[in-house]
Amino acid sequence: MVEKTKKYKLYKDGKSLVIGAIAVAGVIATTSVQSVSADTTNGNDTQAVKTADVKQDDKQVALQPTQSKDTAVKTETTTQVKSDVPTSVPSSTTQDKAKETVDKAQDTVKGSADDAKKSGVEVTQKPTQDVTINQGNAVDETNKVLSDLNKQDQAIKQATATQQANTQAKQQADTKRDEAVKQGQSDLGQATTDLKTAVDKAKTSGVEVTEKTEKVTPKFKDLKGLTGKALTDAMAHNIAEYNKAIEGAVSKEKQDTKAIEALRQQRDKAMGDYRTELARVTKVNTDRKNAYDKLVLDRETAIKAAIAKGDQHYTGTYDLNGYYGGFLNGKVHYDYTYHWDNAKRTFVVTKVDIRFDSQSPDKKGAGFWDTVYVQGPKFAIPQDSAKGHIQGGADITENGDTLWQQIKDPKYGVLFYLSQNNKTGQVVVHQDNTAGVPYEAVQLPNGDYELARFISRNRQGNPGVRDSEYANWIIGNKIVVHSDIPTEPTPPTYEKEPVEPAPLKGTATYYDVEALPKADTPAPQKVSFNLYNMKTTPVETPKTPEAPKAPETPKVTPTATPAPTPQAKVTQASILPHTGTTEKTGSSMLTAFAGIASLGLLGAMSKFKKKH
User: Fold this and answer.
1) Across-strand partners of 51?
2) What are the start-end ranges of the H helices in 370-435?
3) Which strands sit side by side in the sheet containing 331-341, from one edge to the other?
4) What residues pair up with 434 in beta bridges, in sequence order?
5) In this structure, is the dihedral angle defined by the CA atoms of residues 162, 163, 164 and 167, taken in order, positive or negative?
6) Angstrom distance (rounded) from CA 173 to CA 171
7) Are 39 and 148 within 8 A, CB to CB?
8) Stretch 295-307: mean pLDDT
9) Distance CA 520, CA 15 (A)
10) Closest by CA position to 470, among listed 372, 373, 398, 407
11) CB of 528 closer than 8 Å to CB of 38
């Protein structure tokens, strides 16, 4: 610091010249510049904050929060802080008071350092620096030390604030993240549980469900190395992305749940309709089968009874007169022996006894050959060759013998044959009780059994129209025996059972949302500081100078005004540039400047005396 030059002049006090003040223009220069430091680290780099003999202003020191080397993202600065350490002492401060002030300031710095450690800041205390003060430089050196301690205290407090802000941001980010994850997992977990439940029910109902899992990766920001607001902002972004992914996954799983549930309901309805129809058809078919089985059982029971009876006989007389109204006279007496043949599942006639009693005709016709024969129920019926050759009611080409030739074939199974011309009464008889025996009886629809039948030949057509008449063989009468054996039941026609509905198919997708990343634990702030050992210098007691004798007043002869005494030119000392080591400027510079100034002043005074 350079003070303004003060001007001094000689004046008379009685007879003596008195020097009112001894001053040196521009000789007050800086002395003993001491550097102090407060080192803070940003990441792994150390930056030294150095101070020199400059005026401390009110601006705070702002520190950037910790930044990872792996990311170029910078966070905002934390709140700036001020130090309670004073930056100067009064100009009248003594060495002891200066030391006391510095010690008190250092207690503040140490307290800040302790608080920083508690907050997680890595604090390094560097070696203590010695500073020697004397009565002449106590104020200046103290101010420099205080200024440096103030900056160091600010740096420590700033690191503490940054550490606390980073910690708080981490805690806030973790809290918000945990809340989001808890809620998200709860929502997605519930949706997944509902979907799995729907799938299980659907599978039980017969729905074929394909299950798969899809990974959802939200667009998360990298949180590595982020601190402070940058961290909370990035976490807020990630939470929003996470929530969006969760909402999407929940929505899709709910849609699948609804779709699977719809398939299950559709399947249940189809299966319900199927089971209802199946039950109906089953009941109908069961009833039909039961009814059929009952008929079969009843028939088998009756058959067993018939078998138990063995051979049975059926006898009777057939009156031909009554049948033909007198044109064919006589009676046929019959006796049929039969029994149940279980292999053939019917009655079998094993013996036939037929006897014919001829009677004289009491009535004659136009000469038509009325003919009748007896056969078993399963034998064929012949076709008459005289068809269309009847004129005037008389056979033109047929007679009893020619007709016999037509029907004596074994395929007709003729047991008894009778042919009579109703005009002349001529009778032709043929009888063979063993023809076709044994043979099977035929069960009629009412359950009775036909043992034999009479086949008759009679006229057909309109007798009033020429050549419209013809002869034909027809069943005239049946020999029927009553039976308790029911007819063989016809197997029932069953309704077709319904076909089980084809299984429905669906897909269920479960979603796995990528975990919301956690914030990194912020790297601790790093700061270093150093304290000072203030060494005082003993103060010497100054000797009392003798009072100067008043000089004799010289006689002055007016002369020309003497030229002004040239002043010694003093070059201001500049402050050396600061380095990492302690800089010192010896106090010898002040002594040299003062000596030069004193010599100049004494020379001026001596010259003045000589002139006067």
Assistant:
1) 36
2) 400-407
3) 312-319, 331-341, 346-357, 439-440
4) none
5) positive
6) 5
7) no
8) 93
9) 88
10) 398
11) yes
pTM, rounded to two decimals: 0.53
Tokens 């250092």 found at: 106
The band of 470, judged by pLDDT with boundaries at 50, 70 and 90, is confident
Q: Is the pLDDT of residue 385 over 70?
A: no
On the CB side of 278, how many CA atoms lie within 13 Å of its CA?
10
Give the bridge partners for 506, in sequence order. Answer: 209
Q: Which two tokens stand for residue 604?
A: 């001026």
Q: What single-letter amino acid sits at 177?
A: R
Nearest to 453 by CA among 462, 445, 444, 466: 444
Taking every pair of Cα atoms in the chain, the longest distance, rounded to a whole number of angstroms, is 231
pLDDT at 319 over 80: yes
Q: Is the peptide bond before 566 cis (omega within 30 degrees of 0)?
A: no
Question: In angstroms, rounded to a whole number, what is the distance separating the alpha carbons of residues 108 and 67?
Answer: 28
Long-range contact pairs involving 16-21 (C-beta distance under 8 Å, separation at least 24): 16/550, 16/551, 16/553, 17/551, 17/608
Give the total residue count for the chain. 612
- Angle, CA of 574, 575 and 578, to the nearest 5°: 150
Strand segments, DSSP code E, in 248-308 are none
If you search the block for the tokens 């205290």, which residue do you land on?
A: 153
Residue 125 tokens, joined: 């205390």
Highest-confidence range of 55-59, 237-241, 365-369, 552-556, by mean pLDDT? 237-241
Place of tokens 């003729």: 414
342-377 tens-digit pLDDT? 999 999 999 999 999 887 766 677 778 888 999 999
Higher per-residue confidence, 104 vs 610:
104
Using DSSP bridges, classify how beta strands 346-357 and 331-341 pair: parallel, antiparallel or unpaired: antiparallel
Q: 402 — phi, psi (to 5°)?
A: -65, -35
Contact 376, 413 (CB under 8 A): yes
For the beta carbon of residue 487, count every other beta carbon within 10 angstroms.
Answer: 14
Determine the average pLDDT of the residues in 302-329: 85
Residue at token pair 């990298």:
222
Q: Tell me: pLDDT of 126 over 80.
A: yes
pLDDT reading at 2 higher than 50: no
The pair of three-digit structure tokens given for residue 66, joined into one six-digit string: 């910790």
Q: Counting beta carbons within 10 angstroms of the beta carbon of residue 361, is it exposed (0 to 12), middle (13 to 18) or buried (19 or more)?
A: buried
Report residue 477 as tokens. Answer: 């009468």
Q: What is the pLDDT of residue 424?
A: 84
Instruction: Give residue 304's pLDDT.
Output: 94
Among the listed residues 219, 291, 285, 211, the one whose alpha carbon sits nearest the alpha carbon of residue 248 = 219
> What's the confidence (pLDDT) of residue 423?
82
Averaged pLDDT of the chain = 79
State residue 584's pLDDT score: 39
What is the reported pLDDT for 551? 61
Half-sphere exposure for 302 (CA within 13 Å, toward CB):
18
Q: How far is CA 83 from the centre of its chain?
A: 56
The DSSP H or E segment spanning 162 is helix 138-204
Instruction: At 46, list the tokens.
Output: 């150390």
For residue 368, the one-letter residue type is: F
313: tokens are 């006989």
